[in-house]
Amino acid sequence: MEEEKSKDNAKNDLQSITEQQACFDKNWILQLNKQEDIQDFICLICKQVTNNPMEIDCSRHKNMDESLIVGENCLNQFLSQNPNSCPVEPHENCSYSQSRLAKRYVNELDVICPRQFEQEQEQQLQMSTQQGHEEGETPGIVTCDFKGKVKQVNDHLEHSCCLQMAKCWFESFGCNHTCLKSAIYDHLTSNMKLHFDLVIKSLDTLQQIIRQYKEEISKLNLENETLKVQLQLRGKKDEEISHLKQQLDQYQKDNLQLNSAQKTTFVEMEKLKKDIESKDSEIQKIKQEIQLKQKQIIQQQNFEQINENKEEQKQN
Ligand SMILES: [Zn+2]
Ligand SMILES: [Zn+2]
Ligand SMILES: [Zn+2]
Ligand SMILES: [Zn+2]
């Protein structure tokens, strides 16, 4: 477990040097350099050796004797936290520029492999906690004997360091093993069964997932069919509704026509009633006339009879 931890640290270390551009650990640089070699290149902010040195050249610090140098990363962090200030003393409009000379000087400093440095520090820490531990290198621990210039470190860490870490090739199948790049083949050959089982397991999981998807698809298909049928039914109902609406319209029209027909019939009936009434009175009149005529006729007949009788009497 201890070993795993130290390897994780080595990974972080690689990131901090190549990506974060933080200043360099003074103790690491001092492995192959003297204090007086680096004292003019110490970062004002973090007190380590400057990475990408920037020179503070505000006019108000002109009389200061010491070199005013900060690492670019430290300066950016400082200015983002203290806008309109200066790392030397608080004032506005801090003036600074890249110090190419300092950068070249720092780049040319001799150093050992930073991973090796970190490993040695951890070993020393372990030794100090385990008093009486036998001297010398612990057997089985790989050491990197790189010695070069600061500017060569990144290339070394990425391409030729034997302390470079590697992840197991079967990481995506669930093996979280990390080890030295040089030891990865040992891990692969001695864990073939484990890796094979991991692959089989993930295949099983995949098949299960596929089965679940298939089930979901058939469920969705079924739902789709039901929806289609419902849609068709709705279409039919819509048709029926529009048919019923048409019928209702027709009924309403018919009703209107009937109403007006009824009105005309009523008017006609009234007319007929009046006609009948007038005819009735005419009939009454005619009746009266007939009666009158009949009376006259009867009177006439009576009169004639009387006359006849009179003549008969005369003749007799
Ligand atoms: Zn710094
Ligand atoms: Zn200043
Ligand atoms: Zn190395
Ligand atoms: Zn593995």
CATH architectural grouping of the domain at 2-189: 2-Layer Sandwich
Question: Cα distance, first to last residue?
Answer: 185 Å
Helix content: 55-70%
The count of helical stretches stands at: 9
Rg = 61 Å
Secondary structure class reads: mainly alpha
Largest sheet: 3 strands, antiparallel
The CATH homologous superfamily of the domain at 2-189 is named Zinc/RING finger domain, C3HC4 (zinc finger)
Return the CATH topology of the domain at 2-189.
Answer: Herpes Virus-1
* Number of E strands: 7
For the record, the CATH class of the domain at 2-189 is Alpha Beta
Order of helices and strands: HHHEEHEHEHEHEEHH
Multimerization state = single chain
Order of strands in the sheet with the most strands? 2-1-3
Q: Which strand-content bin applies to the residues?
A: 5-15%
Shape: rod-shaped
The whole-number mean of residue pLDDT values reads: 88
Low-confidence stretches: 1-16
The distinct bound ligands, ions and cofactors come out as: zinc ion
InterPro entries: Znf_RING/FYVE/PHD (IPR013083)
Coiled coil: 203-296
Keywords: Coiled coil
Protein name: TRAF-type domain-containing protein
Question: What topology does this entry show?
Answer:
Elements: H1 2-20, H2 26-29, H3 35-38, E1 53-56, E2 69-71, H4 72-81, E3 96-98, H5 100-107, E4 110-112, H6 114-129, E5 147-149, H7 153-160, E6 165-167, E7 178-180, H8 184-190, H9 192-315
Antiparallel strand pairs: 1-2, 1-3, 4-5, 6-7
Helix pairs in contact: 1-6
The chain binds zinc ion (4 copies).
InterPro entries: Znf_RING/FYVE/PHD
Organism: Reticulomyxa filosa
Coiled coil: 203-296
